[in-house]
Amino acid sequence: MNARSTVSLVGDTGRGNEAAILNAALEAFGAKGFHGASMRDVARGAGTSLSNLYNYFPSKSRLLAEVLRHANDELVTRLHVAVDEAGDDAVSRMREAVRAYVRFVVDHQLAMVVSTNEVRYLDGEDRERLVVDRDATQAVFEQIVAQGAASGEFRTPHPADAARTVLSGLAGVAQWYRPDGRLSRGQLAEQQARYALALLESPLAH
Amino acid sequence: MNARSTVSLVGDTGRGNEAAILNAALEAFGAKGFHGASMRDVARGAGTSLSNLYNYFPSKSRLLAEVLRHANDELVTRLHVAVDEAGDDAVSRMREAVRAYVRFVVDHQLAMVVSTNEVRYLDGEDRERLVVDRDATQAVFEQIVAQGAASGEFRTPHPADAARTVLSGLAGVAQWYRPDGRLSRGQLAEQQARYALALLESPLAH
DNA sequence: CCTCCACACGAACGACTGTTCGTATGCCAA
DNA sequence: TTGGCATACGAACAGTCGTTCGTGTGGAGG
User: Where would I find the HTH tetR-type domain in this sequence (chains A, B) (predicted)?
Assistant: First the structure.
């Protein structure tokens, strides 16, 4: 079945066409890249006029920043819910964190791709804010790995480096995943969880 | 020490300013992205005139294609040398392949970043040719993992998927590596090799 | 000497870019 | 009714884009 979710990243915000513009911007930036997509592309996708975009966002780069912020918020929320609902041991928590991450990639692949590929076009405050938000994601994984290293559940040295490598691999999933692929959403999540636990040298995981 | 190599990706090609143009294009595309960088940027970086670029490359996208082809050629060459010089067992071959890959990332980080981030702006024959070339890289890793799975050196199921995950993680290194980081080139290569072997569930590796 | 070819340049073209301006509509509060 | 505010639009601006054109130079081969 493996159908791609058609749920938009941004739900209604209560401000006229704001959500439509944000989702259209995500589509445009995802399809053509930040500099390859024009504000006219975004307006067309949102079903509104070019000049009306500037009633919501003061510039193109700020529009990108808002798109990325919405994407990261959704990811962080999902991660915290998943980890909170997991057991107390590091293996369980890591497994659930990876599962949640992969499910986000499958549900909002475009958002993930844009997040990793276009973030470098931000500058100034917008960039700093997003870096801080992204560090929060990394901290979730780092803390779990540190816990597992302390308890003996993970035997990998340099927990912080290992956590980053796991995250790097997960982000990579968005680059090659195809909704019509061989594995279902759940199977992919399970497989990635196994890879992560193996990389962390968890003796009991397999 | 960790000094970044200052060796250019493309050596002299025997055709006037060709190498300078290719290297300048790599710098420009890496700094601003394919659509963010202009042909005028490339010309300035190469120390030549805008119109002269078209004596060497018929279009901007073809210029990108040639840059990516040079980068991939260098990577594939290094990989084959490393694997050929390794022992016969899969663990040794994988370790050397990962080491060579990481060393390429360190030596030519910009080329690696551009390869992963800008390849999607190619289309038509240029894109197809690069996909074929990239499959050759993947095949090197897939074959090693398959060998190790058959011999029992690797216990991971679905060798092809595992190989892609390893490669995906290695490509990710280029996104976060900094020459002034804590680890030396050799230490980073060693660490990534350990991660790869652990992910492949190699019982003897650690 | 002459021709050819590789290499180099400045100027220009039409298309497209992000952004601004002036204006209009309709709704809510006073 | 009046005023203000959020939302919406078309037209226009100044700048940049990739690409082409015409021209020029200098060395190699006949």
Answer: 15-75
Flag residues 43-62 of A with CB < 7 Å from strand D. 48-52, 55-56
Chain C bases closer than 7 A to any CB of the protein = 6-12, 16-22
Distance CA A136, CA A139 (A): 5
- Residue A206's pLDDT band, with cuts at 50, 70 and 90, is low
Using the CB atoms, write b or e for A56-65: b if 16+ within 10 Å.
bbeebbebbb
Q: Which amino acid is at B62?
A: R
Residue type, B8: S
Tokens of A76: 């962080």
Query: Which residues from B are below 8 Å from A when comparing CB atoms?
Result: 32-36, 116-117, 120-121, 155-156, 158, 161-162, 164-165, 168-169, 171-173, 175-176, 191-192, 195, 198-201, 206
Model confidence pTM above 0.85: yes
Name the stretches of chain B with pLDDT < 50.
3-4
Structure token pair of residue A20: 């439509």
Q: Which amino acid is at A134?
A: R
Q: Give the DSSP letter of residue A145.
A: H
Query: Helix, strand, or coil here: B1?
Result: coil
Identify the burial level of B87 via C-beta atoms within 10 angstroms of its C-beta, where 0-12 means exposed, 13-18 middle and 19 or more buried. exposed
Q: Tens of pLDDT along A165-204?
A: 999 999 999 999 999 999 999 999 999 999 999 999 999 7
CA A6 centroid distance within chain:
16
| Interchain CB distance below 8 Å, A199 and B195 | yes
Q: What are phi and psi of B83, to 5 degrees?
A: -70, -40
**Ordered structural domains, chain B, with CATH:** 10-57 (1.10.10.60), 60-199 (1.10.357.10)
Contact between B191 and A35 using a beta-carbon 8 Å cutoff: no
One-letter identity of residue A115: S
Burial class (CB in 10 A: 0-12, 13-18, 19+), B99: buried
Structure confidence by residue, pLDDT tens digits, B62-104: 999 999 999 999 999 999 999 999 999 999 999 999 999 999 9
Q: Residue A79: is its pLDDT beyond 70? A: yes
Q: Distances in Å between the alpha carbon of A159 and those of A76, A89, A156? A: 21, 16, 7
- Is-contact B52 B34, C-beta < 8 A? no
